[in-house]
What does this fold into?
Amino acid sequence: MRYGQLIILAVLLLGSVTMIVPLLWMVMTSFDWGARLNIPFPPRIWPEIPSLRTYELAFTNIPLLRYMFNSFVVSGGVILVSLISSLLSGYAISQLKFKGSNFVLVVSLCTMMIPFEMTMIPQYLMFGQLHLLDTYWSFFLPALNYAFGTFLAKTYFDKIPGSLREAARIDGASELTIFIRIFLPLCIPIIATLTILQFLSVWNDLLWPLLALKSPDNYTIQLGLAMFSYNKSMPLPSIIMAATTVSILPVVIIYMFLQRYIIDSIASSGMK
It folds into this structure.
């Protein structure tokens, strides 16, 4: 093995350890009854007093199931809206080749250069005027503009031979039929990729839910945990770690099921 490969392997190994050790510490602390009042120092990997009571108290003191249900509703709606928007717009820009299609793509990509912190106040005021605050529509409607998804879908559709569309047009298929019956079945890898990216973004988001949601019954999981930690006068490290561990399980499970689609070759999948 060359020295260059050894260096790359060492850097990747260091990065993996940097990511795994804090996660492992969080999970082990969530089982540590001895850490219910104070975080142990120095940190220990194995619990001093292993117990499942921390999880029992987490579910007792925090409405985790309600918060997770809300997060699933928000994430599912945002993913559905953004997928429909990005796939249709990406297909139109890539395959229909209408006049000004490149300009539309460039304008769409320019919106990615504007930080959310610059648009959140106008967005908050706009949804306030529409009386959509404290509703999930304040999450679904912004998902219509998913510029990165449009760009990714357009790049993906560019790799699919245009002869497929031409053959279908000769057979008399409409544009919508071509998209649904020919192109959409070839989009499983890109759909899986966009689903994971959007799910991670929405599930872990705290800033916009903090602004848009007022009722505790509508809180997402991250906002609910943040409010619980803020309102508690006494810190409960192992209880919060248990709740946080529960909150990341859906992300891990979804990634495990969809990761094989992400690593598939997009070009070869299109050819198949």
